[in-house]
Amino acid sequence: MGTLQALLTEISGLTKPRGLSNRLRKMLGMKPKLPPKYRIFIMMASNMPESLDAALLRPGRIDRIYRVGYPSREGRVATIQGYLDKVEHDLNDEHVQNLAVKTPYYSGAKIKDLINEALIIAMRDDRTTIEWEDVWKAKLLKELGPPERTEYIERERHAIAVHEACHAVVGHLMLSDQEIDMATIQRHSSALGMVK
Known about the structure:
- It is a single chain.
- The chain is mainly alpha-helical.
- It is 48% helix and 2% strand.
- It has eight helices and two strands, in the order H-H-H-H-H-H-H-H-E-E.
- Strands 1-2 form a two-stranded antiparallel ribbon.
- Helix 4 packs across helix 5 (93-101).
- The two termini are 44 Å apart.
- The model has no long low-confidence stretch (mean pLDDT 84).
């Protein structure tokens, strides 16, 4: 609340004349100088617009609101290529296009984080060049969390494998326009297996 009040005070205070000369003029019974005509352009940005106070959003304070969404596929291709140009990699244009298709709700920061994680995975394998497998592992790590080391008994392993295979078959039949990239019974946080 204190920050909001301070911000509102500063915005509203821009039209008020200030200074010692106006106080002196007022004490001497003279008319105060007119406030200067400010030409100030205020721009604000927030990743939580729903938390902004209505007093701040009223016309006269914020006149236009622009919403910036996630980048398009072409934007993601350019962003991925931009971050890949900063590191050694052996990804070709097909890999970049494929990654852009498989990251529909990724912001620029999330793409940067993905490439950084892929570089960390490559460096752990004593390599300085990012490969496609590193990017894919980084994507899974970011979306699913680190895999848990779980020892399944044979009956559990079979049941989970059948369950995930059913997901894959139904996905293939019902969503024939989409590709299945991975089917695993490796446990991740809340899931015993995954078809993606």
